[in-house]
Amino acid sequence: MRKLLSGLLASFFAGLMVQAQQNNIITTRDYPIEYFRSPLNITPDASGTFGELRSTHFHAGDDYRTQQRTGLPVYAVAEGYVSRVRVQIGGGGNSVYIDHPNGYTSVYLHLENFNDALTNIIRAEQYKQKRFDVDVMVDKGTLHFQKGDVIARSGNTGASGGPHLHFELRDTKSQHPLNTQLFGLQFTDRFAPTIQGLMVYDLGENRFNEHTPRRPLSVRAVSGTDYKLSNNAVIPVNGKFGLGINAIDRHRAGGFQNGVYSIELFIDGKPMSTVLFEELDFNTSRGIHSYIDYAQWKRSKAKYQKSFKDPGNPIEIFHHLPNDGILELTDNQVQT
Ligand SMILES: [Zn+2]
Hints:
By secondary structure, the protein is mainly β. It is 7% helix and 32% strand.
């Protein structure tokens, strides 16, 4: 997992320094890191990670590649009771939910088929309802798995663009998905994130919208993790402004463009904005359209993540945000 740290900017402003880091992981709580095993027995390889920016939502889990095939055994990541099993033509396809005694729920989607005990639960419900799509809330105590039991085979069912396992860990009580990599279920990640561009939003006294004046800034890598403005120029700012960053993280050469875990903005060493993809909430996931610069995405396909929060955006990925992350410099000094 990587952290993306962007130390930025200035009033008539220069001294821009942007860093893409891979250590120094910030979290707001402690996680049991030995408790869960991997849901598969192959080397974990991600085609999607937690918090990734999708067209209508943040990706709520990790997508494990399954060697371009279906039928790999899927294991219970820890002991627990099945709380839900579902068959759906779209969405998650065939899915299983297991509640664990430590307060977390593991979720497995797009399965090819279930083991016998789960199949029996599904068949009984399909027979009762006389329909294919069923969503069964299973009473606690009905079906218990030990850590490492085979619960299903991996597949490509539901809204899935190829064989893979979508895996989540949720807080059982809130059903909020959490970043599974914080539980020690890590993908090998050999590369620091890549910063593809920055954007200055000249807000003045206005709210951010599609007409907000934008100034794209191109950056170049000066080392594995450090970036500078391509033209080394000073960037003048006047009045209130915000910043956005376009960044991705590849885990290996030629790998998928995965999301970054955190984005921090500092001015003169002071934290101005901290975004963490630690926990999401399905109820506010559509706030992604307010978090990323949606108008710019439509225009250029570039996904700029804003370091400021629009009024009314309910997403809770911002953890440190004085003035909603809107910046204003009060002197003519060069800031860094
Ligand atoms: Zn997924």
